[in-house]
Amino acid sequence: MSEQNTADKIFDVFVIGGGVNGCGIARDAVGRGYSVHLAEMNDLASGTSSKATKLIHGGLRYLEYYEFRLVREALTEREIVWRNAPHLVHPLRFVLPYFKGLRPAWMLRIGLFLYDYIGGRKKLPPTRTLDLRHDEAGKPLKPIFSKAFEYSDCWVNDARFVALNARDAADRGAVVRTRCKVVEARRDGGQWRIRLQDQMTWAENEVRAKLIVNAAGPWVDSVMEKVLSHNEPHQVRLVQGSHIIVPKLFDHDRCYIFQNPDGRIIFAIPYEDEFTLIGTTDQDYKSDPAKVAITPEETDYLCKAASEYFAKEITPADIVWTYSGVRPLYDDHASAAQAATRDYVIKEELIDGVPLINIFGGKITTYRRLSESILEHVEKTLGARGKPWTAEAPLPGGDMPNADLDAFIRSLLARKPFLSPALARRLAKAYGTRALLFLKDANSMADLGRDFGKGLTAAEIDYLVAQEWAVSAEDILWRRSKLGLHLPPEVAGEISAYLAAKQTATVLQ
Ligand code: FAD
Fold this sequence. Notes:
By secondary structure, the protein is an alpha+beta fold. 32% of the residues lie in helices and 24% in strands.
């Protein structure tokens, strides 16, 4: 939809923020028949939604804080999200070593019993006990660990998950604009007049809407204050969490959950075939969320905590990449950052008679349920239009028979035998059935154009630009994929040059 058309129109719902919550809400709302406009000031998932530990989980730890509502809802969501995005979400087994002096075995057993049974688990296997002296999971650990519990959760490719929620919202008619900052929203005649600024051209335009959903994550308070001129007392608690990535520490496909003497836990997760992802930390954060970065104390903490368990010592010299994010938690005035509620809080209000909905907290895991709750508020204000529908609707590319990823990879290889098994797997896990949109009539790798390395071809980049709002090399190498981990740094420059040439060719046409 052109800017001229958006200027003439009054949207039902305007969403600020292209993270998992904003994109999930836009998708749900447009699918019910509301007209929707979403604006993201940077790239999709460039905020917290690409900085997670990437677990679709109930949060075993949250049981200790009596967050039963959250844990039950999150556990139930696991299999729904897995079924709807079998390319992006995968079951994962978690190995929790028992260590005398930390949480007692009876407490872990009760917690895992609850975890197995309160959330409607159907396909994920239940908890079992491991003898680490004989199980492969014991091999990379210090010999003092002889017993462990193993339970189920899932893992998600978080940044792609967001992009595909946005893709589905746009396919259903939502306007999704990235690099588009909401700079001001005024109340005028019972509507919102929203001023948008293109972050690449600095051009401004105005959009009108009946209702605003403030899904700005860590920026939720600052949007209220600076964009909506609505000075509410501070409601978000920003909590930094960081991860380190090291060359892979073990060969099996399970993940570890390690307890630390300070009561916190960290995960060590197989990552991108060649690496292990270790995280996370919890510390209050007071600065600009866009500038968050791992601190030396966090690096030290993660290396030491992992080295307590792994036979091989992990040092800062092993680290190949790090990333940090800011949790936009609802400020429930808990004393420690790790104790602040992970549940989401929705605050609806009328400002001068015009509706605004603010979101605090939440998990990627529960984004779909959060969206349904937001839609209940939207319905009350704008009138009902359609029913909840997202539980049964695959995300783009997730429409594979029986949600069977392995069978889909085999069928992709049969249709496109020129793909190496590794590339077929990467493409299937990233795009699902939509991989065929850019593989189309190709009969050889040469048909896909220039190969920038690891099978990242011009055809794939063109697809990401046309269909997934990719604008820069960083979008492509670090969010639409994690190829940045595998390719030499100079490839970023080559992709930038390719994108610039493409842009020039479009302008000259
Ligand atoms: P964001 O993803 O931050 O999106 C908000 C967006 O709003 C941003 O992209 C920002 O650019 C945009 N924006 C802000 N202001 C404006 C404006 N004026 N105009 C336009 N756009 C604007 N959850 C799980 O389920 N599992 C996990 O394992 C997990 N691990 C985590 C680990 C860490 C370290 C962290 C930090 C979080 C973790 N989470 C996890 C939580 C989860 O990542 C977040 O709850 C979720 O990503 C929040 O999404 P959001 O859409 O609310 O915010």
